[in-house]
Amino acid sequence: MKKLMYAFLMFTISLFSINAQGYQIGQTVEDFSLKNVDGKMISLKDYKDANGYIVIFTCNHCPYAIMYEQRIIDLHKKYAKQGYPVIAINPNDPDVVPDDSFEAMKKLSKKKKYPFAYVIDEGQQVYPKFGATKTPHVYLLDKNKVVKYIGAIDDNAQDIKAVKIKYVENAIASISAGTNPDPAVTKAIGCSIKKKS
Amino acid sequence: MVVLSVMPIQFLFYLFCLFNLQLTVFQNISRENITIVDTKTLFSLIDKQDDTLRVFNFWATWCKPCVQELPYFEELNRDQKNKKFILYLVSLDFKTSIDKKLKPFILKKKISSKVLLFDGGNPNDWIDRIDPNWSGSIPASLVSLNGKKIFEEGEFENLQSLNAFIKKIYK
Fold it and tell me: Which domains does chain A have, with CATH numbers?
């Protein structure tokens, strides 16, 4: 009985935490189906040989997202062949930020020759499940879609030359080695995700 | 005769000095409007143990919702003018855009509140220290009074909601 009560308590707490803050480290992500800039629907299950997933909430308009554009491209180029593809999700409501419309996403993807999927969170149902609050906001998942790392790409948005810690790269190295990333969570400044008020 | 010819020169020199002095004072005022602060300085302000109410609004010129709520903070600052109150508009603009973006913005919008440009290094080292519930998205606001702190992430829709938030410090 005590065990049952405890299980119930934990279940309630976990429900609460999902609702309040989204996925935490160690939780399994529910797959999604979102429209890519090429018009095709993208899900995690489409990546058959993945050893993990670099899910990045990012967008067109945010100065922080812009500063990380090239670094996100480089991440995919370096890690997709190791089985860690980037999946970029634009969580913003285009009615609030016209620069983040699907058409604008297509243009940016073409201009920057994005080698990864750049999908739109139409209806804004996916980002709240993750608990994403800003752009860019990284969720690194392992092979089983378990969240292993949440936070920033590195420790210096403004000056790539002054970067000392590459959080995402270190986290991937940890997962590949079968250990848990440390730090598992980092914080950075970013643009708030835009929704209708 | 000699004295007379020297007089106007002295007078002109005096005028010249006065003019220069005014110029310097004026430049200092406009420069003083933005103070660059590091983590240590910012936290020394936040953690001050006195009866002055301090409000810190984290914003940037590139952040639309931040810019939208700035007039409420300006209004608040005017309302609280004669009280023990200091508002700090803590800009997270990039250091490289102080002259290009931040200064022109302050002039254009006629910002009269104190603007700090926060140059704090790796955000992962200080976001949790401001408040563990802060995800790092802006705008965000912090109120401190005699060691007590309250925090809120997100923008205020009007002056009333901003005032309601600040009053929570007295609870």
Answer: 27-192 (3.40.30.10)
Q: What is the pLDDT of residue B144?
A: 98
pTM of the model: 0.84
- Residue B11, amino acid: F
Query: In this prediction, what percent of chain B has a pLDDT beyond 90?
Result: 77
Number of alpha helices (DSSP H) and beta strands (DSSP E) in chain B:
6, 7
Q: How far apart are CA A26 and CA A181, in angstroms?
A: 11
**A20 interface with B at CB cutoff 8 Å:** no
Interface residue A189 vs chain B (CB under 8 A)? yes
The tens digit of pLDDT for each residue in A88-120 reads 999 999 999 999 999 999 999 999 999 999 999
The strands making up A86-90's β-sheet, listed across from edge to edge, are A41-42, A34-36, A117-120, A86-90, A52-57, A137-142, A147-151
ipTM: 0.83
DSSP letters along B81-149, please? TTSSEEEEEEE---GGGIIIIIHHHHHHTT--SEEEEE--S-GGGTHHHH-TT--SEE-EEEEEETTEE
User: What letter represents residue A187's amino acid?
Assistant: K
* Interface contact flag, A156 B128, Cβ < 8 Å: no
DSSP secondary structure letter of residue A27: P
Count helices and strands in chain A by DSSP H and E runs: 5, 9
For residue B94, give how far its alpha carbon lies from the nearest alpha carbon of chain A (Å).
7
